[in-house]
Write a structure and sequence with these properties.
The structure is a homodimer. With about 350 residues, the first copy, chain A, is α+β, with helices and mostly antiparallel strands. Chain A contains eleven helices and 17 strands. In chain A, strand 9 and strand 10 form a beta hairpin.
C-alpha cells in the first residue's frame, strides 16, 4: 500500500457543514490535520480545522491550491460539481471517486445503476416532458413521486402525485427540470445501511438503522432495527454490491425501503449517499468505530475499524428551534449532545443531534 | 446561574499540548469555539481551534487581548504563572481559580493543604538548605524523596535518597532550589481520582484508576482498580474535600498511594493536578462523559455528566518512538488510537495513547 497516509498528513474536505466538522474532529483524534474548502465564511467546520479556504466550488485557482496543500481529498456532500471533482483529482487522490459522485448526483443514474446490479428499487421512469410524465403515470399508476434528477435532498425537489392529479400540475411544480417518476412503494419502514470500503477492497457494514422522517428530514434513527435476518442480509449485500461496482473508497450510506413484514420482508434501494450520513451519527457513541473515523481510515488507506454496536440506540436530530433544548439535554444522564456550532437556527436546519445508548436488553 | 455560557461561546485555553487539544475537541462537540494561547507556534491544539494566540505567558498585552476575545479561561498545565492567571482573571472568569493553581504549583503548599484537611499524605518536611535537608532526613529517615517545590512533572525535579547517601549530594542534585523531603511510603499501588466540581458545587468522581508508571511517566491506567470499598470511599472523599476547600470548578485529578492490602488498605495523597489528567484519558471511550467534556461542562456552568464506566479499561500511553506502532494499533479490533499530531517523537514525549474497553466480566 505505497500511498497509505501517515499521521501528520492533511485531509482536504470539500464542504464545511456538520459532516465536514465531525470528519475533521475524527481526523484530529488520529493525528491528521484537516483543510476545509467552503464558500461560506461562517462554515462550522472551519472552527476545528488547521486550514481553511473560503472560495466558490468553481474557483479553479483556489481548488488547485487547495488540492496541492493536502494529501487526499474527500467531501461531505454529493452535489460536488463534476468539474470541481476533476480539478482536485488531477493533483490528489479523490475518495470516493468521480463515478460515485456522478451516480449519486442523478436519481435516474442511481436507480438505473442499482437495477443493473439486480438490486430492487421502486419502479421508475425517466421523465423529461409533461408528455413523458403522463405516459409514465399511465404505466406506474398513482400515487407516485416525481423527483428532479439532480440537487434533491431532505425532501426538496419532489412532489407526490395523488390519483386524479393532472400530469401538468405536477410537472409545473418542478419547473420543468429533468425528472424521474418513481412508483409508490408500500413500505413498512425506512432503513439505511452505513458501510465502508477500504482502499484494499475490505468492506465493513454497520447494522441496519431504522430511520423515521418528519417533513422529509430524518428525525430519529434507532438500532437494532429488528429486521428479519434474510432482509438484513439482503440489505448489507446490496450495499456491498453497490460499493464494489463503484470501486468505492470511504463511507457510503444506502437508504432503503422495507417492504412487507416478518420473514417475508424485503428491501428496495431508495437513495445512495457517497459520504458519511446523518443516519450514521449514532456510531460516535454507539459503535466501536464512528462512521467519521471509519471514513478517515478508508480514505487514508488504513484498516477499517470494528463496526460492533455497543447497546440499544436512539439518535434524534435537533432541527431548527429544537436546539434550544440543549441545556435540558445536557441534564439528561446518558444523553450525548452534539451541537454543530451554527449561529442561526433556521427552520428545517440541522443544528445538532442527541444520542442515547442504552444497555442491551433494557 | 446568570453567568452560564451558551453554545457559540468561546473557551480560552492556556497551553496548546494534547490536553488543550482534547479539550478543544470536546468543546467543539458541544458547539463551543476554542481559542488557544501558547508560545509554541507548532502547538498541536492549534490545529483544532477556531483561534490561536502565539505569545509568551508574560506578554500581558497578548494576554489581555486573549482574555477579551473569549468568554471563560481555563488551562491545561498547572505551572501557569500567577501573574498570567491574574491578568486574564481581571477580565474573564478563570476556572479552576488562582487558589487551585497556587496550591498545586508548590509541593509544600499542596501537602500542607492536604494535611490541614486531615487527609493522609507521605510525611514531609520543608527543606531550604543542606542543613535543613540533613535535619529532615534525620527525622524521616531514608529512603526518602527530595523534590523541588515547583515545576516538577513526570518524575522531573526529584531525587531518591537511599540509606547512607549524603545530604550534600542530594541537595546538589536539585541545584539548591527550595524543596520538600517526602518520607518513603511503602505503597502497593498508585491510583488517581479524576473528578469534577461544577460552578454550583455539584461533585462527580470517576471510579479510581490504577496507574502504573515507567521512568517516572504514566505508562498504563486500568479500571476497575479493585480497591476495597472503604479505601475507594476514602479516596473519593479526599478528592471531594480538596475540591471543596479550593472552591474548585472543573476537572481535578488527585494522585494517591494505596498503602496496605485488602480491607486494611488506605490511601495517601501524593499530588493534585488542577486540570484534566493523563490518567483520565480512558474516559473518552470508557465513560459516559469524557473528562474533557466534563471539564467543559463545569467551566461553562453546565450540569456535570454521568461518570458511569462502560467496561473494563486499559489505557496505554504511547511515549516517544512507541507512536510508530500506530498502524498495528489501528489494525487491533477495539483498540482506540489517539494520536496527538506532534511532529517529533522525542524520547519521553507523550505522542498519543490507546484505549481498549472490554465488556465487563471478560
Amino acid at each position: 500500500m505505497p500511498d497509505r497516509l501517515a499521521p501528520g498528513a492533511t485531509i482536504g474536505i470539500l464542504g464545511g457543514g456538520q459532516l465536514g466538522r465531525m470528519l475533521a474532529l475524527a481526523a484530529a483524534n488520529l493525528g491528521l490535520k484537516s483543510h476545509i474548502f467552503c464558500p461560506d465564511p461562517h462554515s462550522p467546520a472551519f472552527d476545528v480545522a488547521a486550514a481553511r479556504t473560503v472560495a466558490e466550488y468553481d474557483d479553479e485557482t483556489a481548488l488547485r491550491a487547495f488540492a496541492e496543500a493536502v494529501d487526499v481529498v474527500t467531501y461531505e456532500f454529493e452535489n460536488v460539481p463534476a468539474r470541481t471533482a476533476e480539478v482536485v483529482a488531477a493533483s490528489r487522490p479523490l475518495h470516493p471517486g468521480a463515478r460515485a459522485l456522478a451516480t449519486a448526483q442523478d436519481r435516474l443514474a442511481e436507480k438505473t445503476f442499482a437495477a443493473e446490479l439486480g438490486i430492487p428499487t421502486a419502479p421508475f421512469r425517466a421523465v423529461a416532458s409533461e408528455a413523458e410524465l403522463a405516459r409514465a403515470l399511465g404505466e406506474l399508476g398513482a400515487p407516485a413521486i416525481l423527483k428532479t434528477r439532480r440537487f434533491g435532498y431532505d425532501g426538496k425537489g419532489q412532489v407526490r402525485i395523488e390519483p386524479g392529479m393532472a400530469a401538468g400540475e405536477a410537472w409545473a411544480h418542478l419547473g420543468g427540470a429533468p425528472a424521474i417518476l418513481e412508483g409508490f412503494v408500500a413500505f413498512s419502514r425506512e432503513i439505511s445501511i452505513v458501510a465502508a470500503r477500504g482502499r484494499d477492497g475490505a468492506f465493513a457494514a454497520y447494522e441496519p438503522c431504522w430511520n423515521e422522517h418528519r417533513n422529509g428530514i430524518l428525525d430519529v434513527t434507532r438500532l437494532p432495527a429488528g429486521l428479519p435476518s434474510a432482509a438484513e442480509r439482503a440489505a448489507v449485500d446490496a450495499a456491498q454490491a453497490i460499493a464494489e461496482a463503484l470501486d468505492y473508497v470511504g463511507v457510503i450510506a444506502v437508504e432503503m425501503f422495507v417492504v412487507g413484514e416478518g420473514e417475508r420482508a424485503s428491501v428496495a434501494v431508495n437513495e445512495i449517499a457517497p459520504r458519511v450520513h446523518n443516519s450514521g451519527h449514532w456510531t460516535i457513541e454507539g459503535a466501536e468505530t464512528s462512521q467519521f473515523e471509519q471514513h478517515v481510515r478508508a480514505i487514508c488507506g488504513w484498516p477499517l475499524g470494528s463496526t460492533a454496536r455497543r447497546g440499544r440506540i436512539e439518535m434524534r436530530n435537533l432541527i431548527g428551534a429544537e436546539i434550544e433544548a440543549w441545556s435540558e439535554i445536557l441534564a439528561q444522564p446518558g444523553a450525548h449532545l452534539h451541537h454543530y456550532g451554527k449561529a442561526k437556527a433556521r427552520p428545517g436546519r440541522k443544528m445538532g443531534h442527541v444520542t442515547v445508548v442504552a444497555p442491551e436488553g433494557t
